[in-house]
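FAQ: What does the model actually see?

It sees only this:
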Amino acid sequence: MQGAGAKMGRSSISVTVNVPNSTKEEMIGSIYETAWMEGCKGMTVYRDGSRAGVLVNHDKKEDKEDLSEFRETTAPHRPEKLESEIVRFRNNHEKWIAVVGLLNGRPYEIFTGKADDFWAPSWVQKGWIIKNKTRQHQLTVRFPV
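And it is asked to produce this:
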C-alpha cells in the first residue's frame, strides 16, 4: 500500500516489516521483492530474535497476539515547538533533506523533501519545528543563528 503512494509522491517511502522467527527465507525474499515492485525506496525486515535489543518479545509462548486485527495506539499530544535534527541524504542521486522532530529525545514526526526545495544552511544540524497558528495545517522550521 505504501509503495502505491510512493509512485505518486515526491517523497521517498521506506517500509519496515516485523516477522516472527519462524518466517522462511523464501517469504522474506518475497517481502523484499514486493516492496521493490511497488516502488518503495527503502525496505527493512526484522525477524524476531535476529538481533539483540530489536523486537524484544517478552510474551509467553501461550499468549499469542491476534495478528488478524490492527492494533490501535495513541501518540502523545504534539507540543507547539519540537526540537529537530536535520539529516541530509541522497535519493536516486538527488540531494534530499529530512527534518526529524524529536519529543523527549525520540523521533515524533519527519518531513522530507528535495534539498533544492528546502532552504537550510549546510552547517545546520539542529533546529525546531514550530506550529504556525497564522495558517491552517502549516509548520515552520527554525534554525539557530
